[in-house]
């Protein structure tokens, strides 16, 4: 049976594109039923529209608080029969409204080797710390910041002549393989 996922993203959407393309290339039994974005002007919105993926943009400033904003997202997820949520550069903490509705079904990709360098600047923080190895973590979401159960990690070397930009490019290219690999495994295992 084909599973349905929602992708949540806030920015460029290169991971969204990688997931979308891998689903096609690998004939995965999964559909991106909805893109949820918290910035109407984010590049990911146009990318999703161009691919015919339904888009829900939610301006959190229009709501009294996170719970109210997530309560506005939830019916769209339910109407689309979403089985799981993949965060792909979604720069907000998921609140209890969505966590309760999708227990152990919300997954995040983080551009560092958690528990090291959580938060919004995982690449920059690892670079500034002078580590020689960093990487990518995919994990289930819980109520903390980048603290949920780790599904998998891939390491990425930091080269002596790296800039933040060259390191970021190397991390992103790993992410674009790794996230589809994990999605495929979770589907095969029946975890989502
Ligand atoms: C990715 O590198 C992802 O790991 C990171 O945002 C980027 C989004 O890129 N996520 C976080 O930092 C979450 N704390 P994209 O919009 O091109 O997919």
Automatic annotation (TrEMBL):
Sorted UniProt keywords: Purine biosynthesis, Transferase
Pathway: Purine metabolism; IMP biosynthesis via de novo pathway; N(2)-formyl-N(1)-(5-phospho-D-ribosyl)glycinamide from N(1)-(5-phospho-D-ribosyl)glycinamide (10-formyl THF route): step 1/1
EC class name: transferase
EC number(s) per entry: 2.1.2.2
Domain of life (superkingdom): Bacteria
Reaction catalyzed: N(1)-(5-phospho-beta-D-ribosyl)glycinamide + (6R)-10-formyltetrahydrofolate = N(2)-formyl-N(1)-(5-phospho-beta-D-ribosyl)glycinamide + (6S)-5,6,7,8-tetrahydrofolate + H(+)
One GO CC term on file: cytosol
A Pfam family of this chain: Formyl_trans_N
Ranges where the Formyl transferase N-terminal domain occurs: 3-183
Amino-acid positions noted as binding (6R)-10-formyltetrahydrofolate in the UniProt annotation, renumbered to this chain: 66, 91-94, 108
Marked site positions, Raises pKa of active site His: 146
GO molecular function, one term: phosphoribosylglycinamide formyltransferase activity
Biological process annotations from GO: 'de novo' IMP biosynthetic process
Active-site annotation: 110
Binding site residues for N(1)-(5-phospho-beta-D-ribosyl)glycinamide: 13-15
Function field: Catalyzes the transfer of a formyl group from 10-formyltetrahydrofolate to 5-phospho-ribosyl-glycinamide (GAR), producing 5-phospho-ribosyl-N-formylglycinamide (FGAR) and tetrahydrofolate.
UniProt similarity note: Belongs to the GART family.
NCBIfam families: PurN
Protein name: Phosphoribosylglycinamide formyltransferase
Source organism: Lactiplantibacillus fabifermentans DSM 21115
């Amino acid at each position: 049976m084909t599973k349905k996922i929602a992708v949540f993203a806030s920015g460029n959407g290169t991971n969204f594109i990688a997931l979308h393309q891998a689903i096609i290339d690998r004939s995965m039994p999964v559909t991106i039923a909805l893109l949820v974005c918290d910035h109407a002007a984010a590049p990911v919105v146009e990318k999703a529209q161009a691919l015919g993926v339904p888009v829900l943009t939610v301006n959190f400033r229009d709501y009294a608080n996170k719970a109210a904003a997530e309560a506005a997202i939830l019916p769209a997820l339910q109407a689309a029969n979403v089985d799981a949520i993949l965060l792909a550069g979604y720069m907000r903490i998921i609140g209890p409204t969505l966590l309760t509705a999708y227990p152990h079904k919300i997954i995040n990709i983080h551009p560092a080797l958690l528990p090291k360098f959580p938060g919004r600047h995982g690449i920059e923080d690892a670079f500034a710390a002078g580590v020689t190895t960093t990487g990518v973590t995919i994990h289930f979401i819980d109520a903390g910041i980048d603290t949920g159960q780790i599904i998998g990690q891939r390491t990425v070397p930091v080269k002596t002549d790296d800039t933040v930009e060259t390191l970021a490019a190397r991390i992103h290219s790993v992410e674009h393989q790794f996230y589809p690999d994990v999605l495929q495994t979770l589907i095969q295992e029946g975890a989502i």
